[in-house]
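quick one before i forget lol
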Amino acid sequence: MISNEEFERGVWSARTPRPPSEVEHGEDQLSAFGFRLPPGIRPGVTRPQTRTTLKGWLESAPAPIFVLYAIGAAFSTYFCMYAFRKPFSAGEYAGAKLGGVNLKTALVISQILGYAISKYIGIKVCSEAAPGRRAWMLVLFIVWAETALVLFAVLPPAGKLIAIFLNGIPLGMVWGLVVWYLEGRRSSEVLLAGLSASYIVASGVVKDAGRYLIREFQVSEWWMPAATGLCFLPLFLLSVWLLNQIPRPRVEDVRERAERAPMDAAHRASFVRSFFPGLLLLFPAYFFLTAYRDFRDNYGVEIIRGLGYASDPAFFTKAEALVMAGVLIPIALLNLIKDNRRGLGCAFVVMTLGTILLGLSTLLLDAGRIDGFWWMTLVGLGSYLAYVPFGSILFDRLIASTRFAGTAVFAIYLADAIGYTGSVGVQLYKDFGRGELTRLGFFKGFTYFMSVLGAALLVGSCLYFLRRARAPAPDSLLKALNPQR
């Protein structure tokens, strides 16, 4: 029998067989596919519901209501996190130097280093996080990040470098904790698309908010990041509470998308060994893609100045709103594809088209066919079409199509650790290897490089993973779960 501890953690173990006296109608068919139902749940019978709490009401709520609620809670939680991460990059810190290096460059590299280290830590911490600890971990991480921003305001330049490094360490683990609430569901594409929309639009909005505090309230560039975070803290706390009311995936979700459970070191190593050739193609693409997306994000102010848009205070909000709509729609539509193998293939198609868009839009800019605003919007759209699935639907579909027992959070964090290492590497290369180039000039060259390399690597990894994906479960399994079907 499954232990109460496992049940409370939402882990339905398939490794320990039960005595014949406990096997009910249809369970022998379920065991052949690696499913184990918790105590009191039998095939064709839904989980007992209680409507006395918000979580109980959500368990029996109509699917559209549940989806809207989950998207709202997850979107708001991660959107608010960005208020503790990105506002510092809205400052220019003109003339400030540290050891002969531009201070903003040093700050950007320092935070990315902290964020990259956070992703390596998150491989273990987020993969093993039990349900009862996730909300408290989210709150702890944000309080840590805000404290670091206060230190950023009061410490001398060398201390500011340390403070912004410490700010990045907890923030890199927020994404994985939020994804835990959404993965492994029949509506995961829609839920994860809604979550991903948060960071597409949030970066621009919180940077504009930071610039607004400087312009309208004369907040200094040093205090602006902490002040922006403090403004969003109450909403973050409310959002985490709402997020924590989301119930576990239903039996039908487990049937279609595979069981999701924390992964120990042995399971993590098994995942890498099982899919190593495909990951060897996939992760280099993400290495450069993360660096590209981060460069556009961190140096957007300098890039738009080079394009002649420095005087537009709402540039980022307008551009990123269009990007968010362009990314959200195709990724959410993938939810209409029920076959996990086809869904995985279509996710790769969306990502590959995104990398192609990077090169095409830059050709149009160089030919004078589009202006700087539309170029920044289109390269933002292309980069996020390729980037967003890595942190959401790509690995969710991979787990579902291969029936590998585990969580997409591990694969996401393994990719992120590699990706943010790339972000640090490319930043250092720009400043110490191509220092003669402007931010805009370097970014345009990087765009062409990313377009060609990204498309080639994604096509190769797509072919590999489609060969590894399994056919959908037969109808006998569906009847075992619901005999009245």
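fyi Residues 4-45 form one domain.
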